[in-house]
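Supplementary Methods, section 5.1.

A reviewer requested that the exact input to the structure prediction be made available. We therefore reproduce it here, unchanged from the version used in the analyses.
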Amino acid sequence: MNQEVIRDFLNVPGIVGIALLSGHSEPVFYTHHSAFTKENPSNLLQSVFRLVETIPAEYDRFEFHFAEHQIALHRLQSNRIVLVIKNNTLNSEQFISAFNALASEITANPKAAIEQFQPLPPQPRLKDLLETMNDLSQFTTRFLGIAVITNYWKSSRPEHDWLQQFQVDRAGQISFLGESSMLEESVSAQQLEWIRDWGQCFIRRCSQAVRGYATLVEQQALTDLQKALLLP
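The structure derived from this sequence is encoded token-by-token as follows.
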């Protein structure tokens, strides 16, 4: 089992988070939601451990609500319990397929699964990606006019519904039209890929008008951290 299996499961629409429980050790939460990324989500943990102790052995699944989320506990072999945090956008058919794949990996080698359920490198926040894109936009004003930059951002945007929530104004600045609280949340691996595709398309478009633009971006436009965020 590798951590990509966990990431793939988290990318299923409607999955908010996941944890693997073994005995009474505290689970590590993998999640895109800020409510579950705190160092010690104690209220949820206490509820989970109380429930685990009372669930009869013949039950292989138990569900309850925590705030606005649905928590499902799935009992696997070797007394491993997978905790899944879901919301109301979940597609049941897609979830079942993804969960069966994850459960098979865990069951095949439970010891390795416990080792893999260590903190994943965090996905970047939406706020950080927006700042990086706007810094790139500002850098590009050295070579191209604002109207051209604005047009290039708009014309290079990939056709994904999620990216339609981003607005490019007349000053070439990009903003997010969704809930402001989402700016502080981590993007999913899929969302990060879409934004990187957008950035790459923008860079290619600018390179057609500015000789050596891609090299200039690599060398001058962004910090090392920003390059790690936006450039594959």
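Residues 189-207 form the longest helix (19 residues). These observations are discussed further in the main text.
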